[in-house]
Here is the input.
Amino acid sequence: MATLEQLTRDARALAAGEPLTEPESEVSRQMQICNACRYCEGFCAVFPAMTRRLEFAKADIHFLANLCHNCGACLHACQYAPPHEFAINVPRAMARVRGQTYADFAWPAPLGRLYQRAGLTLALALAVSLALFLALAAATQHPRSGAGLASGGNAPGSFYNVFPHNLLVGMFAPVMLFVMSALAIGVWRFWQQITPATSGAALTLPPAAEAAGNALRLKYLDGGHGEGCHNADDAYTLWRRRAHHATFYGFMLCFAATSVATLYHYLFGWVAPYNLPSLPKLLGVAGGVLLCVGTAGLWQLHRRRHPLLTEPAQAPMDLGFIALLFLTSSSGLALWLCRSTPAMTPVLCLHLGAVMALFITMPYGKFAHGVFRSAALLRHAVERRQPNRIGLGED
Amino acid sequence: METDVLVIGGGNAALCAALMAAEAGARVLLLEAAPREWRGGNSAHTRNLRCMHDAPQDVLTGRYDEEEYWQDLLKVTGGQTDEHLARLVIRASGTCRPWMRQHGVHFQPSLSGALHTARTNAFFMGGGKALVNAYYRSAEALGVRVRYQTPVDRIELADGRFLAAYCGGERIAARSCVLAAGGFESNREWLRDAWGQNARGEWPAEQFLIRGTRFNQGTLLRHLLDDHGADRIGDPTQAHMVAIDARAPLYDGGICTRIDCVSLGVVVNRDGERFYDEGEDFWPKRYAIWGRLVAQQPGQIAYSIIDANAIGRFMPPVFPGIRAESLPDLAQQIGVDVATFTRTLAEYNAACRVGSFDHTALDDCHTESLSPAKTHWARPIDTPPFYAYAVRPGVTFTYLGLKTDETAAVRFGGKPSRNLFVAGEMMAGNVLGKGYTAGVGMSIGTAFGRIAGTQAARAAVNSSMGGEHGNA
Here is the structure.
């Protein structure tokens, strides 16, 4: 145990020695003031984690920034918020550092720069993917006899008449593999950095279960009292939490639909398209609708969000991601509706282009927030269980 | 739109009055002197309410009954209180929280670093500004009209009966009125005059910092006392005063500028001398006397000195301390005579009788043959690095106010007004003649705000039924 503590101290000292960036210094300044006040302790995980520290080194700042859910409760409750000269705005200060951590921990490192132009990256990815699928479609559809690349053996209305199954697998599988690796490497590096700063103790089942529960329920968008977080003003609202739930669970249902369909294809040889009431279709339609509704809600909420709670530089990243998710889900639903019409091919290209763009930008856009925040929640659940090194006499 | 009840002020007491009056069906207009972003006065800086309770309740542990609360109040005020009104506040504190919740206030368990208050004080989740925000939302939902940046400079009375308030040239009439516009702590000239000149020729109040709002200028308080001859209570030099970081902003430094390491070290004045027992009692029971103690020192400044052993044992201060590897170096950095300072510290260190140090108990570490003694937590200050925090008196709120009774009525020549009421800091001196204990200001404001609102609504109904309202 002593060696672990020694390692922790060494790592902290090393991290403490690293100069802070401007957004990091700002978080450190604000946390110093918050730590002398502590009124916001009941809102979320950030403030209880803060009280376990007297100083805020780089790793502490990265950890706290990713633990923050930008619920806004501490801004509206803050006696030191602008126009006070202390100018405390924890949600915005944390958002700036979060954006920086996504870029800093990105793999491969040079691609981290894509975060700075997340909007442009997304638009380019979408345009290129669309063009790619349209060109492919044009190439495969050319021989009208149906004797081209696409096999005529598929059912009418089958996407495989446009793009053969193996072609799609050949395109998406490597991209998926790359995306998963890039995200995993990025979050692993983040984990390595914040672990020594969060007690160094190993992750065990109880904290993992707690963190998973907090992530899946979006515990920290409930305001600490269950009435929700802030959006346009100082009133509490549950709509942000609900819209995020619809988006996340919609996404997961779509993912489940694809996974089930893959099993059908390879295990049972049941080839798409699947019709209602098949499982992939049910999951896909439910997921698509939820995703559409959720992203539309998030977009509306984003538009009405209190100006002090937004970080203007990150708006393209946030809105771009929401828009792409909406495009993916709505084009997916449209595809189902127009499967037997001539619109099928262009809509299919649109859908596949959107999905491809979504995938390839995942490690370099807003999607990363889920991965990094989950890591921070896990470390918080671990740290919370360790004895507090700071014993204030009055307690 | 006609106004039944006019509430002057925009903090906790004013909002409680407005909410109660609106709930009683009155048409309420609330005038807040500050712009919206600074609304709420000192209430925005508060964090809890001292509550009596006979058994554990949600965020409150154990039992804190009326008698114990009363004894605590009696002790800190040295008897300068009105037992009848004090007990009324205490009893109200035991029953007001469900009502507060109805209006959107959330409570949270005692904060880390303040667990000593878990039995006596109910903390507002997010602090006082969250409470103020909730009350404004609830008030607006109940139809209370709120005007910001509307400081009232005088009121019109006839035979002790309220007719109208004036804001600049604008006359605002109402059937009844609640005054809840705060003390005069933000008025530095008034503070200067009240504290006067000391034997050293200094004007001590010139060095005071104001922990809260800049909008409590005491305009209405002075107007009522001087121009209308309202019955007064309290001494203008009495206030809730704390020793705070000398680098705190002049206004609105709030809670975070407190220096909580006093009992872990020694405190010297500008001349390098100690002047009071730093270990007399637990810091939460003593922090409220140190503002006055420092105000009595030359230059109204003092330095809290600790060594490495104290680090991590007190609420982290908002600004970093002045740090030195040796005591003479520390003296030099804070500009205190090195010889006197090192002698004071050497005498203190030599006088320490260290038993078993325990900051959570009144331990047996004390000094012997030292004046003033340090009676607990006395450990030699000998482990570098050493830290110094310069402290100045920080005024939270003043106790000079309007005399009142259990109906919250303003009184003129011993006679209660029929339609003019008072709540909050403008009358807190009735209960708090001197001293302070955490959370009692909010208890007074909530209790009397609610009484004043109810009485004002009743007075408005009576006046309209009696057809007396002909001045609008």
